[in-house]
Specification:
single chain; alpha+beta; three-stranded antiparallel beta sheet; 20% strand
Length: 143
């Protein structure tokens, strides 16, 4: 019996991680979340998100369970007739084409050259930080 644990998946939304964890626990799988408390303090990007930890022996069964849940969700959404939901304009990563993109504080070029020079001259930290879109799949930042 293999009692080794593995990171099954990573989530940048702690609520989504808790939903998946609850599904697994309801199905009898032992699992826990790592870095959840730090992630709720908006350090998601720095720590790599909330990690769902499961036993290695359960990975195949979990894959089957979550795939089944996804197929049921698609089947039930096909049966709904009536109002159409408005299509959201999803931002797409310019580098990898992923839609796992969010807008916020830049990590690479966080401060402009002028903010850096002013902070250096006044011996303070820069006050105006740049914002951009960040792809959580490949790490690319763009306007």
């Amino acid at each position: 019996m293999n009692d080794r644990t593995v990171v099954y998946s990573t989530y940048y939304n702690p609520m989504e991680a808790n939903i998946i964890k609850a599904k697994l626990e309801d199905s009898g799988f032992a699992c826990f979340l790592a870095d959840e408390n730090v992630a709720t303090l908006n350090y998601n990007q720095a720590i790599g998100g909330v990690k769902l930890i499961v036993f290695e022996r359960d990975v195949e069964a979990i894959n089957a369970l979550l795939a089944e849940d996804n197929s049921l969700a698609f089947e039930s959404s096909d049966e709904i007739v009536g109002e159409e939901e408005p299509v959201e304009d999803k931002t797409v990563c310019e580098k990898c084409g992923s839609t796992n993109v969010d807008y916020g504080m830049a990590t690479d070029k966080k401060y402009s050259i002028w903010a850096t020079i002013l902070a250096f001259l006044t011996l303070t930290t820069p006050i105006k930080a740049n914002k951009c879109h960040h792809c959580y799949n490949c790490g690319y930042e763009f306007e």
